[in-house]
Amino acid sequence: TLDSITGKNGGETHTDYFFLERQAAASDTTPNAFDFTNQTGVTRSSTRTSANTVTIAGMDSGVSTAVTVSGGTYSKNGGSYASGSTTASNGTTFKLRHTSSSSYSTNTTTTLTVGGVSGSFVSTTEAAPSYTLTAPTSINEGSSGTINIATTNVTTGTSLYWSVTSSAQFTGSTSGTVTTNSSGAASFSVT
Asked: Model's pTM, two decimal places?
């Protein structure tokens, strides 16, 4: 718009003309914060999919913004999983997917970045199995002794194989198989 200012300077009237230009406010392409639900104790080298779906919100109506993913893939609006760049607007939904680590107790992270805002999905693999044996300090000749096995991170019903290396001192079985119970324990006897 054309506008003017009129003023007096030393008794003379001066009019200066100028243009006012209004600029539209920049569109808000920054979404609200979002995040994915993490998973723990997952099987090693398994395909993991985020349990929750994130819905993008908080941007101006009618605008879209850039989306990238690292460390895995995304499903946009229930479509196929992809790893390439895409765009999102309000109401766009995402799920994340990746393959968990092949190592015990290890995190794998997939991060989705939408308009500069990032949310991550982390899966942590199961802890390594461990075994503790408790044996009598001595076994009298002709008697039997019970060896107890306590386990952690071992599935119920797992077969454990055992053998006695100094078998000449025993008259009974010197090797065998036991199965873990619901507490992760097992035992066997030697004579």
From this structure: 0.72
